[in-house]
Amino acid sequence: MRYLALATDYDGTIAVDGQLSTAVVSAIGRLGRSGRRAILVTGRRLDDLLAVCPHLDIFDYVVAENGAVVYSPGKREVTLLGKRPPDSFIERLRSLGVDPIEIGRVILATWLPHHIAVLRAIQETGLELLVVFNKNAVMILPTGVNKATGLDYVLRKLGLSFHEAVGVGDGENDHSFLERCECAVAVSNAVPSIRNIAAFVTNGAAGVGVAELIDELTGDDLVRWQGRLPRNLVTIAERSDGTAVTIAPYGLNLLIVGPSGSGKSTITAGIVERLIGQKYQVCIVDPEGDYGASQGVITLGDRRHAVGATEVLALLEDPKVNLNVSLLGIHLADRPAFFGQLFPQLRTLRIRTGRPHWTILDEAHHMLPLEWGHLRDALPYSFGETVLVTLHANHLPPALLSQVDVVMATGPSPEKTLKEFSAASGHCLEWPEHLSLSHDKAIIWFPRDNKPPFAASIIPAHGDRVRHRRKYAEGDMRDRSFYFRGPDDRHNLKAHNLVIFSQIADGIDEATWLYHLHRGDYSKWFRDSVKDPYLTDQMERIEQRKNLTTVETRDLVRGLIESRYTLPE
Fold first, then answer.
1. Do 268 and 177 belong together in one domain?
2. Residue 278 to residue 235: CA distance in whole angstroms
3. DSSP for 327-373?
C-alpha cells in the first residue's frame, strides 16, 4: 500500500454539530480493516471530546488541543506535548474581560474578538505563547505546538512518517498538518486557504466527503494521483532550459551507469541529499565506504565490524533515521549472500511502515552479480524506489534491469552504455542524432515512455560530505566529560571527548555499559555537554529499544557518533 494512515480533523470534517454519523463511523471501520491507521487531529479539548464522541475507539490515536495532547484510546493513555500557561496569565485574561475561557490540559481557548485582549496579556506578561485562529475560535498554545507537531509525534510512535499519510480537513488550523502530509485533501465545505493547498477537494461536505475519500483510499490507494503531486516530486537533473527533470517518489527504479570518475557519485550524492531534504528515509548499501561522511546519514559497519541485517532493521525502525550500510567488513564474495538476506527484510519493513522510502545500491554489481544463481530466491519481491549504481548495465541480471524505469548514463560513451542496457533489458532504443555529452551532463532515458534519450545537467549535492565539530571528537571537554562509573561506582573512567568515549564503550564490561544505557546517561551527555540535538534524539531511540543485544547497542552508538564526527581509524 502507498498510504498507510489517514489523519482527519474533527469539527466540520468528519463531525457535523459535534457528532459522527453512522456512515462516517462505518467508513473509518473499513479504513482500519484495510490495514491503515486512523488518526484524529482536532483543536478540541480532550475532556470535551471524550464527552461528545463515544466512538474514539475507532481511532488509533487522537491528537487533541491543536497538537498539545495525545490520547491512545486503546491504552487510555494521555501524553502532554506542552505546558499550559500559568494561572496568573489566565487571571489576567479574566481581568481584561475575556469570557468564556476554555481551559484544557495544555490549551486555552476563547472566541473573537477577544484576540486583542489575548495579545495584550501576552505582551504584558512576557510569555512566549502561540495564538492560533480557526474560524471564530482563538487558541493559545506553547510556542512550537500545532497539529503538525502532534501528528508527527503520533506517526513516529506508529513507525510511520508524513509520507505515508493522507490528511483531510476544513479549517485554518488544519493548514500545518495538511501541508506536511504526502497527500492533502479538503472537504467541499473547507475554507479557501485549505482548498488551495489540497491535492483535491471531495464532492461531498464534511463526513460525506471523508467517507468518499476513504472509499477511494481503500479501493485503489488514490492511484489517480500517483506521480501527479508536484510538491512531492524528486529532482534528478536539470534540462538546458532550466526546467527540472523529476521523478515520482513512489513506484520507480533508477539506474545510474557509467565508468569510474564519470560523475555517478556526484549524481547519487545530489539525489540522496534532495531525498533527505524532502524527508524521505534513505538506506544506502555502500560496498566501498564512499558515503561514510554524508551529512544526515548514520553509518553502520566498517573494516573492523561486519554489519548484520538485525542492526540495519533496528535502526530503520525510526522514520527519522537515514542509514548508510558499509560493507567494508564483509568479504567481496559474501556480499551477495548478505544482500540476499537483507533485502527481503527491507521489503517486509516497507510493507509494514512504507519505509525506507528509497534504497541506494552503490556498486550494485557487488550485491547482485550477473552470474549469481540465487537471484530469484533472494529477491521474491519486485524492486521499488531503488537507485542502482554500477559501471556497466550488463553486469547486472536482466531480470533486475527489466524493472528499471529511468536510466542516467555518464561517461564518454553514453550511446554504448544505453545500448548495453537496451539489449539486456529488452527495451528498444532510438538514439537521436547529434545527441552528445559534456562533462557536467548525463544522458537520461525513460525507456517505458517511448521517447528518445536527452541530455541534462547534473545537480551536485550542496552540503559538504564532511563530519563536523572536531573539538568534541578529539579535544578536551574538561568538566563536561563523561564518566563511566557503572553500578556501585565500581569504575571512574573519564571520556573527555568522543574518541575516548567510543574507545571505552568498545571495551567496558557489559554491566557498566547497560547501567548507563538504561539510565539514559548517554543521551543526557549528548544533550547537555556535546549539545548535539540530532545525536541526542537518535541516542534516546537506541536507549528505548528493548530488543537489541548489548553488542548491537554498542555498534549502533559507535556508528551514530562516526556518522557525525571524525574519529580515528
1. no
2. 11
3. -TTS-GGGHHHHHHHHHHHHHHHHHHH---SEEEETTHHHHS-TT-T
In a domain, 465, yes or no: no
CB neighbour list of residue 178: distance below 8 Å, 6 or more residues apart: 167, 168, 169, 184, 185, 186, 194, 197, 198
For residues 191 and 317, membership in a common domain is answered with: no
Cell numbers representing residue 36 in the block: 491503515
Grid cell locating 280 = 524521505
CA 73, 184, 49: angle at the middle one, nearest 5?
Answer: 30
Beta bridge partners of 69: 64, 80
Three-class SS string for 229-246? CHHHCEEEEECCCCCEEE
Which three cell numbers, joined as nine digits, stand for 560?
Answer: 551514530
Q: What is the CATH number of the domain that holds 451?
A: 3.40.50.300
Return all residues near 9 (Cβ < 8 A) that are at least 6 apart: 41, 42, 168, 169, 170, 171, 174
Q: Structure pTM?
A: 0.80
Q: What is the pLDDT of residues 172-189, one digit of tens each?
A: 999 999 999 999 999 999
Q: Looking at the domain assignment, is residue 567 inside a domain?
A: no
- The number of distinct structural domains making up the chain is 4
Query: Among 447, 350, 468, which residue's Cα sits nearest to residue 405?
Result: 447
Distance, in Å, from the CA atom of 437 to the CA atom of 320, rounded to the nearest integer, reads: 38
Beta bridge partner(s), residue 472: none
**CATH number assigned to the domain comprising residue 11:** 3.40.50.1000
Q: Judge whether 463 lies within some domain.
A: no
Q: Which domain holds residue 378?
A: 233-457
| pLDDT tens per residue across span 438-483 | 767 899 999 999 899 999 999 988 764 434 444 456 567 888 899 9
Vertex 66, ends 60 and 69: CA angle to 5°? 55
Domain-embedded: residue 291: yes
Q: Which of 409, 432, 457 is the last residue of a domain?
A: 457
- Count Cα atoms within 13 angstroms, Cβ side, for 16: 14
